[in-house]
Amino acid sequence: MDFSLSEEHLMIRQAARDFAQNELLPGVIERDDAQKFPAEQIKKLGELGFLGMMTDTKYNGSGMDTLSYVIAMEELSKVDASASVVVSVNNSLVCWGLEAFASEEQKQKYLTRLASGEVIGAFCLSEPEAGSDATSQKTTAIDKGDHYILNGTKNWITNGGTADTYLVIAQTDKEKGHKGINALIVEKGMPGFEIGPKENKLGIRGSDTHSLNFNDVKIPKENRIGEDGFGFKFAMKTLAGGRIGIAAQALGIAAGAYELALKYSKERKAFGTEIANHQAIAFKLADMHVQIEAVRNLVYKSAWEKDQGLNYDLSGAIAKLYASKVAMDTTIEAVQIHGGNGFVKDYHVERLMRDAKITQIYEGTSEIQKIVISRSILKD
Ligand code: COS
Fold this sequence. Notes:
The chain is α+β, with helices and mostly antiparallel strands and about 375 residues long.
């Protein structure tokens, strides 16, 4: 066992921390208010290699490990979860999914531009009636020989309006159930592909979330990822890694709120002393610290398992379940420690509290994580 970080990991942490302070913090409250996508910041993150962190350098990625990725995700999420969700989706769901399962031609055509951040991607699984129940896909991709005809609607798609490349999960052969599902690469601008209205959200308001409509969109066969019927497994395997990224995001949201609460409690005075000197506050800080430490170990362990080539389905589900709970609990307490100031936007903690909620919902709700965990522990 070695709990120390390498020089390279420490450098990545510092680079992400600097970026968060210098580039994400300015304007983060205004972007949240106005639901403004952090376009300039995402462009710079791409130039710095944060959008294809785990992708091989031969496809324009940064060739780093999963631990580097979660370290960066934590630091970016401390300040701006709307930006970090773009980093997470592009890295875990889009670039990783393509690198692991796409053909060499698909990698050259799509992955090289996604990993460099020249364009960003979206992962399209959820539907009006199929979010958690992911095998019940209503979107259809009918096999027409050399192409598919895609019809249906996808919901709550991160980067829905801003992406250029969309990985879309659709049912080709209903008779075959989940074995009849395919994953297709869809390009923005393909005839019949319409971007629906932007969602007005509780949290991560700077991220760009849309529904998508596909009306007889013609998708060439060469845009299918993997063998016929591989789409559901593709989604499950990709989401398993995505959950490590969202766990790291939740860790960052919790740690960001804790750091703000710690600082505030050493400055704010009540009853003649800094509020940190009151046990009621000190014990809250102690609880937050313990929980964040536990979460960080779970997230790092899952990232480590992925880097070792081990199965990380269980550890990723555990990390996401607990990290998102701690993000919610910690941000609520951070608001409480800030008192009246916590309830106004200038102090950032109310935004972190709103942002925390989505980590219990997307890339598999907490209830879905409990399905994954309970099935795993009950199977033997
Ligand atoms: N890796 C590889 N294959 C997996 C897998 C994983 N992590 N999880 C499931 N599978 C496979 C199963 O092995 C099974 O294949 P076989 O029939 O060949 O054995 C197939 O997928 C179907 O699995 P299962 O029968 O367990 O499907 P269920 O309908 O019971 O659903 C859950 C399984 C609930 C785990 C799945 O639907 C899920 O993760 N849902 C949440 C989806 C989600 O995260 N939505 C959010 C959208 S993205 S923001």
